Amino acid sequence: MTWEIMSRMLESNDSIAQTQQINGIVRSLRNSGLLTNRVLPILDKDNLPSNNIGLSRAKKWLAKIFEVFESEIDGLYAAHNCLGSAIYYLEPSAECKKQYSLKQVYDLLIMDTGTIDSNCFKLLEEILPNMSANARQWFVRYWIRKPRNGINEGIVTKILAKQYNKPVKEVKKHLNFNSLDVVVYHYNQSKDPPCNLTHGKFVKPMLAKEVPMDKWPTNRIVDYKYDGNRYQIHKQGDNVIIFNRKGSIVTEQFQDVVESVREYYIDCILDGEIYPIKDDGSPAEHKLMGTRVHSKDHAEAREKVPVKWVIFDCLKIGLETIMELPYSKRVLKMSKLPDQAHRMAEDGDTLAFYNQAINDGFEGIIVKDSSLPYEAGKRSIGWAKYKPPRINLDVVIVKAKYGQGNRSNVFGTFEIAVKNDTEFVSVGSVGSGFSDEDLIKLTNTLRRNVISFENKTFELAPKVILEVTADLVSRDENNNLGLRFPRCIRIRDDKFVADINTLQDVEALE
Prior knowledge:
By secondary structure, the protein is of the alpha+beta class. It has 19 helices and 18 strands. The chain has helices spanning 3-12, 18-32, 36-43, 55-65, 70-80, 83-90, 102-109, 119-127, 133-143, 153-163, 168-177, 180-188, 255-262, 289-294, 298-304, 327-334, 350-359, 436-446, 503-507, and strands at residues 207-210, 220-225, 229-236, 239-244, 268-276, 307-317, 320-321, 364-369, 379-386, 391-402, 411-420, 423-430, 450-454, 457-460, 465-470, 472-475, 481-484, 487-491. Strands 10, 11, 12, 13, 14, 15 and 18 form a 7-stranded antiparallel sheet that branches. The protein has a 5-stranded antiparallel sheet with strand order 4-3-5-6-7. The chain has a 4-stranded mixed sheet with strand order 1-9-8-2.
C-alpha cells in the first residue's frame, strides 16, 4: 500500500503490450496488497486534477531540490526525452529512506504548484530525496502528467473490469454514474453501484467539439448554440440547486431562474445554459454574465442583467434516470418542460438553421448525434459545435504587462498560451476586448500568480483562462505561432486549465 510498491509495479509493467500490461497490473493488485481505489486514480492521469506544472518549472524545481545545475537535468532530459528518467539517472542507486502512502503521493500530485516558495515545493523538497530512484522517476512522470506508459482512462476501465471480472461495457456504465471510489467500494462488496442519479449529486457535463461538416452525425438533432454559461439544475419539489460546470453551487446568483424552475410540473435533473438578454428578450453580450456571477449584491445584479435559462438535455425526469437513453428519447422525455433550447425541425436544413441562429444573435449551432447516451465528462464528436468562420480559442494567461495612459495602474497586455502535453506554447498577446472592470479583476487575480518579473513583464502561473477570437493563425520569421487581430471575448472562470485548447488544435487552423 506504498508508493514504493506501486512504482515497482509500474516499472515491471512498462514497455509491454497493452493486454500484458493490463494483466500484469491486475496480478500486482491481487498479490501486492495495493488498494485498487488508491492505485487507479493515480493511473488515470487524464482525470488527475490540474496542478499547473510545466516542464520548464519542473526542471527548475528539481534542480533546486537535488542541488544540481539545471543544465545537468537538461542534458539528461535530452538523452532520455523523459524528465522522470532524467531524475532517475541523477542518482540511479538511490534507495528508499522513507515509505509514503498512495494517499500522500496522490495529494502531492494534485497540489497546485504556485510559486517556488509555496507549500508544494517545501513538501517535494522533503519527500523526493527520501524516495528510491525508481519511485522518484515514476512520481515525476505522473507529476508532469507524462507517464509515457500508455495508460489512459480506457486502460484504467479495462483494468477495473479485469480486476473484478466485469464486462467493460458494464464498468463504463457504472463509471458514468459514479466516482471511481464509489464503484470500487461496491465491487469490493460484490455489489453493483447504483445507476440512478440523486438530487444534489453533480454529474460532469458532456462536452462538444468543433467538428468538420463531413463528420457530422447523419441522424442528428440540432440546437442553437447559446452564448452563456453552462449550468446543471436539480429540482426536487421546491428545492432547486444550480451547479456551474465545475460542480460548484451557484444557486444564490440566479434566484430568478430558481423561481422559474420551481414551477416545473415534475422533479428533474437538467443540463442547459443561462445567458444574458436585452429588454426585448434577444441575447446580450456575454460579458454581462460577469455581473451575475461575481456580484455580491445578487438582487442588484438581477436588476442590472436579466438572464434566460434554456434546457438542452435531461439526465433524470421524475424517478427515471435517462442518461443511458439515446438523445432523441431524452428530448422526447423532457419535451413537456418549458424553457427548451430552440431546435431544428426533423426535416430542417442544417445550414439554413445555422443562418437563422446567427441572424437571431446567437453563437451558432450544436449538431448532436440522436443515438448517443449522455456521456458524463466526455468531449464527444457526437456533439459538434459550428460557429462563424473565425478562430475561437480557450487560452491561458502566462505573462502580463501594465497598460499605458489611464490604464497604467492595471495589466493591459497579456501573453496567452495553449497546451502541449505538460507545457504551454505561446500564441502571442492580446490587449483588446477588455472592459475596465475586466482589467481590474484580472490585475487583482494575476498579482497573486506572479512567478517572476523581468523587462517590465510579469511571468505568471498558468491559472486564468480567456476565450479569444482572431482572424487567423500565423507564424513569424522564427516559426513562432501567433493570432491575427486577437480579441478577448470573455474571462472563463467556468473552465479548468486542463480544458483549454491544444497546440494541435491551433496547428489544425493554419
